[in-house]
Structure formats: structure tokens, C-alpha cells
Amino acid sequence: MSPAISSDGPANCSNSRIPESMDNDGLTVLSLFDGMSCGAIALREAGIKVKQYFASEIDKAAIRQTAHNFPDTIQLGNVVNISAVDLPRIDLLIGGSPCQGFSFAGKQMNFKDPRSVLFFEYVRILNEIRAYNPDVKFLLENVRMRAEYENVISSHLGLQPVAINSSLVSAQNRLRLYWTNILTSSTPHLFGETVRTAVPQPEDKGVYLRDILDDETDARFFLSRKDIDKLERQIAYESDSHSFIPEDSFMELFRDDDFCETHATAPASCFCPENWISSHTIRPSPDIERFPLSAVQGSKAIRDCALKTDSTVIISGAIVSPQFGGGFRPILSGKAPCLLATSSNSAACLIVNGDDIVLRRLTPKECCRLQTIPDWYEWVCSDAQIYKMLGNGWTVDVIRHILQFL
After folding, report:
1. Lowest mean pLDDT among 202-211, 240-249, 350-359
2. What is the C-alpha to C-alpha distance for residues 247 and 245, in angstroms, rounded to an integer?
3. How many domains does the chain fold into?
4. Which of 13, 38, 99, 367 is an active site residue?
5. Is 99 a catalytic residue?
């Protein structure tokens, strides 16, 4: 395997000296909030030649990942300390500024959140680059957010975004906004014109969670008896107190994470889409704790669904916090929920075969497939760090789709 984007010359991560061009041609790229370098992965997968790749990242685990897979990357450190005038001519600026202040799943502190304020560092650096290269291409990714926040970002970048759901290219529901001048369209009006990101939607590959699951999984990913009892108590408590959060409230808070068309009271006829049914012959070992339907929201519908077939039923869903009713919440679409940047991801699957029911979290490898990380990308960190980086990262095939229009 040759993971580096370009291979001429040794790696150099010093901030004090910018190395000479790594190649005779190709793009010079600056990636802000680089993370595990999903941008570098997408560029390589798209076959786009890169001359130099500069990255701004402060997470030590993420920097280690990049150094392992892309040793020629030039790390610049904290974004607030970067001055574009000190860099070579940048052809492409990419980044996904921290989104916690905008997310419907978060506190929605918007620009008062110190992480979301970092968006203005992206704008500052973009303007610095434009001063000497007005033709620079840029790409910014962020979560779906309230219109007033989106409009602030659009006004600073000079164009409106396109919304693309990763579910088109993967088995994950992950709706994100992308602002880019790689491909645009404009509509004239009385006061000027409205510029929009004109990247078309990627082709729907029709991939579901069932398609990316491993038939055999280590026992540590299955819920323990203690975990199961806790979820069961949460469901029982909420049922007795009649304090379930209404579905519309749940959806409002989790719109960003696309927990999809779930509903605990949905009839079996609409609660059992064909994409749940799988030809898998998953047979967890007898020592795996069996999962009671009393810990599942919408358990009767799942039981009715399972009775309709002799096959193993793979049901996607999320392990939900007590704030949203607790237990396991199924997802009707057959897609996985949006991956979160937590050490133990909430994405899970319920495996039903008659009365034999087990529940497990998705493995790091399966989460990599949800983010369309290619097999050549190697991991050198812990599972907890992998979950965190994938949750913070990009769906590579979406970025590759956008970059193909360069």
C-alpha cells in the first residue's frame, strides 16, 4: 500500500519551514479542521493529483492517523495561528468547521458557541487566499441548521449550499450542507443575483445497513445483561410516567441526525419495509445475552414483522438516551442513523430470528463502511478514537462526488 497522496520527498511536519513542491503539478490544498483527512482520502479516490496538502488540526489522534496514511501532509496546527500569506498559492480550500453550535441535536448556541465561531476563521483564511488568488476553489461542510444560521454562513461565502444526504451513497442517513464554488449557478433578480451551489445529487446506490454488516462479530459489541436491563428500565419508566417525548419533538431535536421515519405506534404493515428482511444467516453464539422486546420502542410491530418471515430480520436503529425515551429505537428506512462523535457510538442493529433476538452496536469497521472509508485506509488508534473521528468526519463518497466537478 502507498497511502501518501504524493510520494516525492520525505515527510515534513515542521511549521518553521515549508518544503519545496512535492510534485511538478497538481493542486495545492489547504484543509482546515482536517480530522482524519477525509478530504485527502476523497482526493485520492477521485484521482485528483495533489502537489501539496496542508492541514490544520489539533487532535493528536487525528494527526497521528494522517501521518500514518498521508506522511507527506504538512501540519500547520491551530487554525487561529494560520496566515494564508505565509503559504504557497492555495488552489483548493476545504473544511468542515465544528458544528456543535448549529446542530439540532445540540444546544443550538449558534455563533455563541466557541466551536462554531471557528467558521469565521475559515472565512478569514478564504479571504486572505482570495486576495492573491481570486479563482481559489473552496468547499465547506456543515450540519443542517436553522435558516438564520445558514443564511449567515451563505452571506459570508457568497453563495447558497446544496443539501446532500449520505444515504444516497452509503447505508447511513447523514444530511449535510455543502457550500462550494466548484460548480455554481446564478439567478438574476432586481437587486443583483443569487448564486447557488449547483452540484447535482449523487446517484442512489441503494445500500442498506444489512448490506454492510459482518456475519460474525466479536462478543464485546453485543449488549451485556447490565446494558439490557438499563434500557428495559428506561422504557418501563417512560411508559409508566407517560413522559415519552412526542415524535415531532424528537424529530426536531434530531433532524440533523436523520433518525428517519420512526414511530413507536406505527402499524406493522408500514413498520416492516422489505429492506429490513435479510438473507443473512447470523447466528450469535449462545453466550450472547438475548434481548427482550420490552426494551424496544415499537416492540409489537417488530414482533409482527419477524413473524412474517423465516429469514433473519436485520433492523437498523439507535440506542437512545433517556432524554428521548431510552431503549432501542428502530429506523424504518433500513439505513443506519447518523454517526455521532462519541466513544461508544449509538448506531446499532437488532437481529431477530423467531424468538431469538440480540442487539449489538456497530463495529468500527462497519462504521467505516457507513462513511465509505476505503479499505486501504489504515487505523493506528483505539476503537473509541475511531468512533469519534468517523462521527466528526465526512462521507468520503459525497466529497469525491463534489470534487469530480473540479
Report:
1. 240-249
2. 6
3. 2
4. 99
5. yes
